[in-house]
Amino acid sequence: MLVAIGVLGVILPLLPHTIFFLLAAACYARGSERAYTWLMTNRLFGRYLRNYSERRGATLGTKITTIAMLWGGLALSAWLLAPSPLWLNAILAAVGLGVTTYLLSLNTLRD
């Protein structure tokens, strides 16, 4: 279930995906070594999970792509919700600033 939510998070702009993949990895590590190995060696997102869980960071390219997609998704959400109340735009901006701050605080790993 956590992997499915993580996959949705890749597609939907405001739903985080990394946390759900990390939670799935933690559950799989305790319950199914085969599923854990599959998740951590997956060709699409395994490298990102390993970087985050083992080395506590992300590459510069990952950070730039993630921040660009984040703000693009937030802008699209604001545009689709237009005309939206000011409080809703403030929430979108706060989410964007919070996630951007967090991403920038991560260690920058070399490729």
Question: How is the topology of this model organized?
Answer:
Layout: H1 2-11, H2 18-31, H3 33-40, H4 46-55, E1 57-59, H5 60-80, H6 86-105, E2 107-109
Helix pairs in contact: 1-2, 2-3, 5-6
Question: How would you describe this structure to a colleague?
Answer:
- The chain is mainly alpha-helical.
- The chain folds into 2 domains: 1-55; 57-111.
- The protein is built from 6 helices and 2 strands, in the order ααααβααβ.
- The chain has helices at 2-11, 18-31, 33-40, 46-55, 60-80, 86-105, and strands at residues 57-59, 107-109.
- The protein has a two-stranded parallel ribbon.
- The protein starts with a helix and ends with a strand.
- The mean pLDDT is 84.
List keywords for this structure.
single chain, 111 residues, mainly alpha, two-stranded parallel sheet, 6 helices
